[in-house]
Structures are given as C-alpha cells and as structure tokens.
Design goal:
4 copies of one chain form a homotetramer. Chain A is an alpha/beta fold. Chain A folds into 3 domains: 121 residues, 3-Layer(aba) Sandwich (Rossmann fold); 139 residues, Dihydrodipicolinate Reductase, domain 2 (2-Layer Sandwich); 67 residues, no CATH class. In chain A, 37% of the residues lie in helices and 23% in strands. Chain A has an 8-stranded mixed sheet with strand order 8-9-10-7-11-12-13-14, with helices on one face. In chain A, helix 2 links the parallel strand 2 and strand 3. The longest helix of chain A is centred in the C-terminal third of the chain and has 21 residues. The radius of gyration of chain A is 26 Å and the shape is globular. The two termini of chain A are 42 Å apart. At the B-C interface, strand 14 of B face strand 14 of C. Strand 8 of chain C pairs antiparallel with strand 15 of chain D, so a sheet runs across the interface.
Chain lengths: 343, 343, 343, 343
C-alpha cells in the first residue's frame, strides 16, 4: 500500500508539530502539501521536506487530486468552511479542536457528514489516545470498579498567553475535560455551572482564574473540574473516577493508581520487557535507521552501543561466570582499547 | 531520501517484533528481506508484507545488493560469521546482544571493524534509549549529583524458560546491568564476584537463583546487582545511583525519583502538553493514518472522536460560558443524536 | 504537679477509647470517674481501673470536687446541659463533636463561656492535631505557597451503620471538613451547596451517597468536598490546597506531597533519627515500663531485644571491623546459645 | 499500681531525650534519679523535675532502694560494670546500644543474667518498635511473602561528628542493620565482608565512606547494606526484603510498599479512623491535659478548637442540611464574633 499523501493546513506551532510527526514518526504517510495564511512559513517548511509543495489556498489544497487526506490546524473560525470542503471532496480530515466555534455550525457539519453516509471527520481530542486515559477507560469498561459515580478533574497550566480571557478557560481548557467525561462515561453532559473563586493574584487583570466547573451527566453522575491556568508550577492534568467498587486516578506522575477493596492502593508493575522497554526499542531502531541513512556522508552508521561495548560486556560476563563457578572474586581481563586503532 | 531496505535475519519472537516495528512504527525504513533457519516462519512473515522477500541463506541476504542494512536477531552462536560478513560487504548492522558468545571472537569483531575505519556495528543494548535511563544519564552528566559512588541494581523476571541455567543469569540478565554501568559511569568494570544465596524454592532444580553480582569499576565505584529470574511477580528493573550530592532512582514505576539536598524526595511534573501528551498525539496520528488507508474498504475514515463528539463539546462549552457570565447553573441544549440519521 | 483527675462521661466506643488513652498513653492524668447511662458498662470499665469510681448522674460527676476535668463522650443531645454544668462548676471540658446539636444552643454555650472570662471548653476536632494536617497548616502559614485559592477534600468511609441517613453525612462527616477549612484558612464559610449525584447502588435505600459539598469562604475561596460513606474500600481522608505558588496534598498515604515551582513534586525526607524514630523510642519505653511494672508476677522485665541480642550484634560488628581492616570476608564467631542455660 | 521510679544514668543528648520522654510521654513511670559524670548537667535537669534527685555515683543510683528500674545512657565503656550492678541488685535495665564494647564482656553479661534465671536486661534497638519495621516483620511472619531470600538495606546520614572513623560506621551504624536482620529473619549472621568503594570527596580524610557490608545468615540468606554517613541530604534508612512470593520495602517515606503477585505495587490504605487518627487523638488529649494542668495560672484551659469553633461548625452544617433538602445554595447565618465579648 502506498503512503498516504497528506495536506497540513495551518503550520503554526501545532501544525508544524504535526508536519514533523508525519515526517519522522508516523509510518505510512507523508506530508505532500502545506498551507498557511503566512506564506513564508509554509514555504520554509516545504523547503525542508523533499516532495512537499505549498498550495496557497486551503480549499485548493483540499480539492487537490494528489492529496489523500487533510490535517486541519488552522484557526477555529476557518474550520467550518474547510470541513465542508473536505466533505464535498470526500477527503478524510483530522481536525484540531474545536470542530467549529459555535454550536449551530458544529451541528451543520455533523448533519452534512451524516448525509454522506461515511465517516470522514475525526476531531483532535488526543487524550483518548494517552496511555493513562486508555488504561482508565479500559478499567471502567472491564467493570472492575462497578458503576462510576463521580469524576474529579484538575487542569493546570503554568502560564497562558497574555490574550487569554475568562471564556477561553472554558472553551480551550475545559473542552478537554468535557470530552474526557463523555469518553469515560459514554453519556452526555446535561448541565454545567462555572464557579469563580476570588482570583489568583498572578492571573491577568480581569481574568477569572481559577474556575471550578460543576457538571452533571444524563444519568446523574457528578463531574467537577478545577481549571487553573496561571499556576506557575507545571502542566498538570489529573483525573479521578470514584465508583461503586473503588476509585482510580491518573495524572499524579506515577501512572494509574487504583484504590480497590480490600483497602490497598497502588499501581501496576510492568509485566514484561516488551511493555517496559517497548519505547526504548522503538527509539533505538528509529535512531539507528536515521544514522544509517546518513552514514554515507558521516562514515558512521551507529548511534548507540558499539562493537567495543559488546566486547566489554562479554569480558565482564565471562569473568562473572568464572566467579559463579568458583565462588570467588574474579578480575576482568580486557585488552586496552587504545591498542586497537579505530576501536 | 528513499526508505532504507532492511534485512531481518532471524524471525523468532524478537526478530518478529523488530519486523513489526520497522513496518508500522519506524519512519524511513522497511523490511525488504527476511531470513530464518525455519523457512516456513520466514515465508509466513514475508507473505504479510508487500515487497518483502525470503532469502534462504543469511550470508546471501547480507550480500544482497538490494539490502541497505541488516538486523541480526539470530542465535548468538551465528553472530560472529554474520557480523564479519556485514563488515566485508560494508553493511550497517544492528546486532541483538550478545555481540558474540565469547570474549575472543568479540575482540576479533572489534578489530575487524576498526581496520575498516568506519563504524558499522551497533549492539542492541536498548536500555540506553529508555527515557528513564536517559534521564538518569542526563542527570549524572549535568553534574547535579556530583561524583557517583555506588550503583544499586535489581533485575527481576517473573519466570524464565525451563532451559534456563545459572550461567544464563549472568550472560543474559546481568549483561544488561554491565552495559548500564558502563553507560552511566563511562568507565570499565575491573572485578566481579557472584554470590549465590540459598535458592528460591520456586527456582528450577540446580539453578542458583537469586544471584548477587558485586562489581568494581576502574576508579573504584561499587556496583551491586540483585538478579532474580523466578519472582512470580512481574518484570522489575531498578537502578539507583548514590552520589556525592544526592541519589536518584528509576524503575519504581513512578519515573525518576531524586533525593537531593535539602532533604526532599520527588520527581518532575510534566512541564507542558507536548511532553505530557506527545505519545497521545503520535498514537492518534498513526491510528488515523491507518484508518484512512483502509477507509475505502470500510467506508470509515475515522478511528477516534467523531464530528458528533466535536458538536457535543461545543454545546457544553457554550453553556459553560453562559454560566460563567451569569454565575448560575445552565442546562445544556443539544439535539437528540437519533434525529440525525448516520450521526 | 499531681495527676489530673478526669471524669469520662459516656463510655461507648469513643468514650472507652478515651479511657484507655488516658490510662495507658497520656502522661499527667488518670480516669477518676466514669459515667454512662448503661450503668453496667460503666461498672465494668471502672472495675478494671484501680482508683476509678462510677458516678451515676453525669451532673454529679461534673460537680464532684474530686474531679478536675471532664471528657464528654455522651450523645450530642446531652451536651448542652452538661457543658453548661461544666461552666457553672468551672470544670475544663474536652467535648466530642458536636458542641451541641443545633446552632442556637451552640451560640448559647459560647456566650455563657464568654461571660465567665476564661476558656474552659475544647471541642474534639482532632484533625488539627494530626501530623499531616499540622504540616499542611505550617506550610500555609509559612507563606511558601502564597495565597490559598481552592481546597479539594474527599472523605470516604468503607461503610456506615444501618441507621445512617443523608443529613448525617453533612452533620457527622462534612463537619470535619468544615473545621479543617476554618483551621487552614482562618476564616468563616459564608455559603454552602450540597449536590446529590445519582446514588451508589450499595448505599442504603433513600440515602443520598455520595454527596458533593460546595462551600465559599468570606474572602471568596472555593472549597469542594466529596462525601462518600459506603465505598467498601477503606477510610480515606484527603485534602489538597491549591494556592498562588503551588499546591500541596495530604492523605494519599504517602505523607505531605507538595508541587511547587519549578515543576517538581515530592515530599520531605526525615531529617534525622529523632524525627524518624521518635515514635519507636516512645513505644519502646512504654512497653519496657509496662513489662517492668508487671515483672514481679512474670519474672520477665523485658519486652524487646535481650542481652543475647546485644551479644550477637557485638560479635557481628567485631567481625565486620576485622573485614574492614583486612578487606576480606570474615566468619562470625559466637558461642552456641544453647550452651548457656537460660540465655 | 504506683508509678515506676526510674534512674536515668547519663544525661547527654540521648539520656536527656529519655528523661523528657519518661516525664511527658510515657504513662506509669517518672524519673526519680538522674546521674551524669558532668554533675552540673545532672543538677540542671533534676532542678526542672519535681521529685527528682541527683545521685553522684551511678552504682549508688543502681543500688538505691527507691529506684525501681534503670535507663543506661552512659558511654559504652561504662556499660559492663553498670549492667552487672543492675543484675546484682535485681534492677530491670533498658540499656542503650551497645550492650558492652566487646564480644567477651557481652557474653559475660549474658551468662550472668542467665544464671539469675530472670530477664532484666533490654537493649535499645529501637527499630523493632518502629511501625514500619513492625509492619514488615508482621508481613514476613504472616507467610504472605513466603520464604525470605535477600535483604537490601541502606543507612544514610547527612553528616557525622568530626571524630567519626571508619570502624564507627560498622559499630554504630551497621549495628542497627545487624539487629534488623536478626529480628526480621530470626537467625544468626555467620559471615560478613566490608567493601570500601572509592571514598566520597566530602568524607573526612581517611574515613572509608561509603562502605558496603555483605552478610550471610545461617540458612544462606544474603544481606547487603549500603552505609553512607556523609550524604549531605537527609537521614534515610531503607529496608527491602526480597522473598519467594514477592518483595516489600520500607523507608521510602511512603510507608510499606509491597510488590506481590499478580504484578501490582502499592501500600495499604488506612482501614478506619482509629488507625488514621489515633496519633491525633493522643496528641489532642496530651495537649489538653497539659493545658488544663497549667490553666489555673493562665486562665486558659484549652489548647485546640474552642466553643466558637463548635458553634461555627454547627452553623455551616445547619445550612448544609437545608441545601441538601432544597437542592439550592444556602447562605450561612452566624452572629459576628465581635458581638460576644470574650468569645
């Protein structure tokens, strides 16, 4: 199967990240087209990617027959028109949140896709793909915790851009917890209340920060969310489900913590080397592939342990086996590295 | 730059994992050739990969002009001959540990590569690429902990195959801590002692498990390693450096824990959303690309939040902003999903 | 100074605990009088305590000239009358919560004590004395966290008696968090809302459990409390302060966890042996004193490590010092214990 | 039963701590006699304790008919003679470690006590009374972990007095782990080796710090201890038992952590309020008793929440119950505190 030819619309911070991701990390796709209202930015990015063109008009990029799929990282107000174009041309699209900037146009997009009879639009609520959220969801779906009752969330940013206002805390921060709630509980939210405690002295003038959101789902589950975007500390996203048979937390920087009968708390130990070191193997291979691809120009096809490292390990293990057999300390015998030119 | 054409020699558990990794995860490379002494196994794997051939003799695979690089996942005793062939044909090779099965042949391989004057051999000590080990190494290199003095390691497996013997605990388990020691301390190990406490009742007859390895480095640093391969619990790999100005531990399932003056312990909070959710974005994109590539046969180009999810989030946030402005609870207004056929 | 002669009124579960505490743990006081409306219970407890009498009427006990101070562990409805009697006779009183069962009588008690011009009444909000709450309070008072903004609490019981009703969750559970809020923030609570999510299937019929309390303090700080008294798991009391310069949590079974700039989380390591082992010393001494006091009847004046244990330690350390000097393993030389009759 | 009259011999840092402990914390005993070779120090301490005398000669103090029991906090070289005197006069004695300063005299003391036919000597290995060690011991004795195999210990001090030498690390620090090993495993240590890595740059000249002790018990269990007394960080005492069915650790500042099948790690949640708040109740009562005993001079018989605190809690809970019934936010009604003079 040939690689997917993707058009990335909008190459600001987020879009540029996605270009890099599709180029260096994702298998089976490459960036064929980039577009941005800042043409220079688009040109600059395309210049670094062999086989990537700039298309000046986002609608042209969507219509382009040599584009198989679209990533939307344009500003929210542009989404409606671009999403409808994707639907019109039958192009699958991964759309950064928000879908659109208001409820009516969002509903319109939903209806138009439904009329087409095939699903083309995915929205970028990436938390559903985070391994901790996935583990929490799996735990809930397994029934281990029984019926969920309450969800506590905290969403803390160290700082926000100067233009941030009170409503953006709802639209840009809370929106993630809205999706998390719907994802974890498989039901809609039917009521919401925003509480504004007296503000953090460090928040910009006039911005109500922190805020507390209180939500209620269709079946009566309670959700509370602390939103605090000027903590000065770090990026903390924490989620705790309290359920009929126990509770579970993620986001404490220590993996999923469960508290279940009979009175213990704790997490999971990695069951095997694949789970523990899967990331290490992936990184090792990617860095090796990259080194080999550039090897003809550098003369070095290695980015990691060398043959010498393999030799040294063999020498120590050899001595170890001798000690195992004799029960006595053993000196390690190795040639001096400098006696081998080039090693 | 065109994709690297890789030959994977040996497609047992490890080699098959690497084939999958190169195919679905790694960018810039694909598996062009597979080989195994079990020909059926190789045929079966090649059949699932478009453009992948079986080559019956591993040395032919190495010599093949349409192979750019080699992954060695064959049994250890085959490594020497295959590595020398890679050197002869100038093929970069990623060799699963051990380099070779004894010290003399390992040294021979080192010398031959040194004579070539370019580095072609990388050994698969993957822990150097693990994010916790990398963080620990970075911390040591930064000088924050001062001079390292002692290294405590534990290497625990829940179980091992029936054929495991006492020396394999040294050669196959301890070998990783040998490399970790050399990696973290940048110096050679000069002496080793293996202590065998009374054995775990659950260990196979005659196998000395657990074992304690005591090592000393050139500059006099002490390393101890608990090796215990029949714990029945889980896979635990723990490493603690004790240094002049504090200590740091990894492998407690809670990230890197540092203990430094003035008397606090703790870890790092994720500084931003890229660090916290980078993996989520990667997974999101890979799954979306995969869904889109198969969309023409399934009619579904989405594997994640749908347009409806975007609409629902918009509706809740809209109500949230109303509550923010009014200070009162607000009901969420949404159309019923079943009124839109296909949504 | 002679011991305080205390009257304990009410010797149910709580009162009986307090009798034991005053007898075996607290220095400088003993139980001189017990009283309970179940006279048998009181008689039984008094019989086990040399010098302790039963007084049938609680008001007589309060008035008794041989009673220096009173502990009130009677049911709440009895408190008003008994507290007023304590004030009348000038007797210091430690009163289990609630002060009285309604606001008007509580205020009356406050006024009567104020008229006396000396403080005689202490209320049993024991959390203020818990080392974690004390550490959290000290941290807030130190200014390290800046201005507190939000308080998140959880109060979970594994189960409650069958007679528990929805209002008791407020009066008997929430009351502790009410006091904790006032203690930590040094200000009054000015508004409260109780939210009742759909109930835990395991809660008794008609009992709204869990409940969420939302409170606001005079200066606008937000407090939320999850109250959940039928979790089936364990007793969990958790408190997190979110403040201008960071946050801190207690009750995660891991001591006080602080999250402060620049992006780290963690706790305090015990600074010295007194802090680490103070409890051990106290327990050691109390058990030794108890053993010695009963030694004449048992012939054993020891409840801990014996002379033999001291000898064995000396033998090992002696060998250790030899090894330190020689750099070689040393066998430990000890006589066989059975060669010394009675050792 | 009347209070035990205790003679404390040696009132340096440790002895003075024990005097305070017996006076303010321990129930059923008081300090009747103090002694120190620095007579001024003894006089000063006795002056602050009603009913406490100085006795100039420690042997006179032991022989004193008005002394029921002895605490030995004198220097180690004085122990032998003083312990033998305690045995001669039949006085129970709690002796700070070491029992005596060499193996021969320790054995002599053991024999003399054995001849008496009653146990009078307890040695101050206080770790056996620490709640974490007690929990670890209980876990081992329960059989939950199966047969113990390996013990890893770390003993770290931030700093030591200038006079500290290499042998004191064995005699004064390791001695605790020697006793812990014997306590946890119920068997003797039969061999020991001290390893001296290259020294911490911050250690005093000529002091071998850190040291690694390797010990073997009678049944073949392995014990290793890192001893490091100039860490500059904090006081850390850590112990991990690795056993047939899992492992358990204490001393990580997070309580006992167990790792047992099927692959989870974690701790225990406090089962109930007595376990969670027992210390708080004890502290509450002790501070209340102390306040009441001094109340006649201060006019204040309270050291904790006041009647006003009880009233405020009642007012908030009253409003809470109204909100529970109405489902609406409720303002809290309270009188202003300043309207009640003296409240």
């Amino acid at each position: 199967m040939s690689d997917l030819r993707v058009a990335v619309l909008g190459v600001g911070i987020m879009g540029a990240d996605h270009v890099a991701r599709l180029t260096s990390t994702i298998s089976g796709a490459h960036v064929a087209v980039v577009n941005d209202y800042l043409t220079d930015k688009a040109e600059q990015i395309a210049a670094g990617l062999p086989g990537c063109r700039v298309v000046a008009d986002p609608l042209d990029a969507i219509a382009d027959p040599d584009v198989d799929a679209v990533v939307l990282a344009t500003p929210g107000p542009a989404h409606e028109k671009q999403l409808l174009a994707c639907l019109e041309h039958g192009k699958p699209v991964l759309c950064e949140k928000p879908l659109t900037t208001d409820v009516e146009t969002s509903l319109e997009v939903v209806k138009r896709e439904a009329e087409l009879g095939k699903r083309l639009i995915q929205v970028g609520f990436m938390r559903r793909f985070d391994h901790e959220y996935a583990a929490l969801k799996a735990m809930l779906d397994s029934g281990e915790l029984g019926r969920p009752l309450v969800l506590h969330c905290a969403h803390r940013n160290p700082a926000v851009p100067p233009s941030f206002d009170s409503a953006m805390i709802v639209r840009d921060s809370l929106v993630h917890e809205v999706d998390v709630t719907r994802f974890l509980f498989n039901e809609e939210i039917i009521a919401i209340q925003i509480i504004t405690p007296s503000a953090n002295p460090g928040a910009p003038d006039g911005v109500a920060d922190p805020q507390i959101a209180i939500m209620r789902t269709a079946s009566g589950k309670h959700v509370d969310v602390e939103l605090f975007v000027t903590t000065g500390v770090a990026y903390e996203v924490r989620t705790e489900v309290v359920a009929e048979k126990g509770s579970a937390m993620i986001g404490l920087d220590v993996g999923l913590i469960r508290k279940t009968a009979p009175g213990t708390w704790g997490g999971q130990i990695t069951p095997g080397f694949r789970e523990r070191f899967g990331q290490a193997y992936d990184t090792e291979f990617q860095r090796w592939v990259d080194a080999v691809r550039h090897g003809s120009s550098t003369g070095n096809y290695v980015d990691g342990p060398s043959a010498w490292d393999g030799y040294a390990a063999a020498a120590v293990c050899e001595a170890g086996v001798q000690s195992l057999n004799s029960g006595k300390p053993v000196e390690v015998t190795m040639v001096a590295r400098e006696t081998i030119a080039g090693a």
